[in-house]
Amino acid sequence: MSNLPLYRIITSFDEALFWMDQSLAFFESSKVLDNSPSEYTSMPIITLQSFSVECSLKALLLLSLDKYPEMHDSILLFGRLPDALKTDLSNKFFSEYTLNLKDALEATKGDFIGSRYHFEDFKKSYVGRTFSTGYLEALSDFFIKYIKVNGDAIYSNRCGVTRNPNVTLGDSLQP
Q: Which one of 30, 32, 141, 151 is CB 3.0 to 4.6 Å from 48, fit for a cystine?
């Protein structure tokens, strides 16, 4: 009998890899829909990109704090990150998009749940709510790229543990 673990996810780094795989999959799926000839893709794109942002934030929390809260609110998830990491993320996001990261997160607050239940609200009022898809795409793309470049260092700095050198976030997260 093998002594190999039954589960692939053993450490917080393993779980961060899982969340980033999901983040990348949701973001890449939104890009496929974005190129679709269908005119009915906006709600699925918003849902996918919103979930991508949530998955990336949970990965960052795992890398930096070893845990994440069970919630969907990207503003609250971002708020739980260490201050130095929030500052670095905010500075790099502004440098890349000339946008305030907290403002972008605020503008997309509720988009994940709102896009999933859009039709129920639409039936009640005959008016759809607005969504910040441009912000969502920027946030999704930014968090994925940031973690590819910085995720290994964040984890190593937190726990001082060297993982398997053959498994890195930068190499693992390929579309």
A: 30
